Amino acid sequence: MKRIALTRTLAALALAVPAVLLGAPAAHADPISQTSGFYVNPYSSPASWAAANPGDGRAAAIRTSIAQKPMASWFGNWSGDIGSAVGGYVGAADAADKLPLLVAYNIPGRDACGGHSGGGAGSVAAYDSWISSFASAIGNRPAVVVLEPDSLGDFSCMNQAQINDRVGMLSRAADQFRRKAPNTWAYLDAGNPGWVDAATMAQRLNTAGVAAAHGFALNVSNYFGTGENATYGNRLATELRRLGHTKPFVIDTSRNGNGANGQWCNPAGRRLGTPSQLGGGAEMLLWLKTPGESDGNCGVGGGSSAGQFLPEVAYKMIYGY
């Protein structure tokens, strides 16, 4: 499973949000070709911690090995006005000619099975409005967005009415990005190799509107190795082709350097994985979870809350112990 990453988006980044593009293009432009590499958020939680603690012996390693690497910023009900938050963040990346990575994490009943990151929008209508504003705030600027970690893996903890509401919200969300953010690649979260079999996940993606998305995302906030994810992703892509969809995938490699040990919530002995890059067994390998941010009150993060930055965990993750 995957946990929350509460990356703060500072008011200092706020820029004007462009007008919404109302057309419905047949295919999105390539945001990679429009930018000169991935955006590094100067206000990420590890960057902010290192700046506030320059005398700490761990600061230099955390700054160099984590804070200066491109990683995603997460947006949810903690983000305040979502149009301003997303518009400011994407605007800052655009001004630097870099490609921003964003995660939308606000679906009602969020983290149904794990529980550590519960919450989300208060209703279906509230979520529809929120995600519409999210897409509109990106507008025609280039971006990569991962939609709702956990959302298609959590069905075992939901009733059928909740599932129906969820796939409807995801389908409408994918369509919002298709229509309003023509230079954004949106990926629906598809769990990880240890959660749902590929044929079942392909059916869920199909129902949840993967036709309107660019692709799907794997291993968000989890620890499975890149090879395991690539094998699962290719199997899932094959199942999707049987349903009429040809879709690429991305893999979260932020914390998979030592692979998984069977635990998902702050397991000990994990290590940083390959930094964000094109290719590598998938369309992209991306740091989607921020290394050092807690999965919840569990494991080596005992006593912490989901999304809290833990410098000791981050430091150990650099060296794999």
UniProtKB/TrEMBL annotation:
Family named by the database record: Belongs to the glycosyl hydrolase family 6.
InterPro entries: Beta_cellobiohydrolase, Beta_cellobiohydrolase_sf, Glyco_hydro_6_CS
Enzyme class at the top of the EC tree: hydrolase
Example GO BP: cellulose catabolic process
Signal peptide bounds: 1-29
Organism whose genome encodes this protein: Actinoplanes derwentensis
E.C. code: 3.2.1.-
Stored Gene3D superfamilies: 1, 4-beta cellobiohydrolase (3.20.20.40)
Binding site residues for substrate: W74, W195, N222, W264, K289, E293
Name of this protein: Glucanase
A UniProt-annotated Pfam family: Glyco_hydro_6
